[in-house]
C-alpha cells in the first residue's frame, strides 16, 4: 500500500509540473501570436528580442518536415517517463519535478505540432546567432540538464553509502 501511495505522489507531482509548463507555454504562445503580429519587438535590448516564427523541425530546425516522427518520439518519451516515475520508488521528488519539465515541454510542443502543424517560437537571442525558442524549449532543456545532474548526484550518494557501509572505523 505504501508503494502505491508513493507512486501516486510521484505521478501527481510529475503531472502537476508538466501541466504548469504546458499551460505557461501555451498561454505565452497565444499571447505572442497576437503581440508580435505586427513584427518583432525588443525585449532585453542587445540580449533577447521577440520574433515570431513557426518551426516544423526539431531543435535548431533539424528534421524539417518530419512532424509525425517528432509526435511519435514525444509520445514515447512521455510514456516512458510516466512508467519510470510510476515504477521506480527510488526517484526523489526533485528528480520527478525535473522530469515533469521535460514532459510538460514535450507535450506543449506536441500540441503545436498536431494542432498548428508547426511549433511557435518567439525568443530570439541578439548577442549570439542562436535558434529562436519558446517556453517549452526552455523547460525541456532545463529539465534534461537537471535530470542528469540530479540522477548523477543521487547515484553518487548511493555509491558513497555503499562504499562507507562496508568499512568499519
Structural notes for this entry:
With 169 residues, this protein is mostly helical. It has one domain. It has 4 helices and 3 strands, in the order H-E-E-H-H-E-H. The protein has a 3-stranded antiparallel beta sheet. The mean pLDDT is 88.
Would you count the extended β strands for me? Answer: 3
> Largest sheet, described in full?
3 strands, antiparallel
> How much helicity do the residues have?
55-70%
Q: Give me the oligomer status.
A: single chain
Q: What string gives the helices and strands in order?
A: HEEHHEH
Strand order in space, largest sheet: 1-2-3
What brief labels describe this structure?
about 170 residues, globular, 4 helices, mainly alpha, about 65% helix
What does this entry show, briefly?
The protein is mostly helical and 169 residues long.
Could you give the topology of this structure?
Layout: H1 2-35, E1 41-44, E2 48-55, H2 67-87, H3 93-116, E3 119-125, H4 135-165
Antiparallel strand pairs: 1-2, 2-3
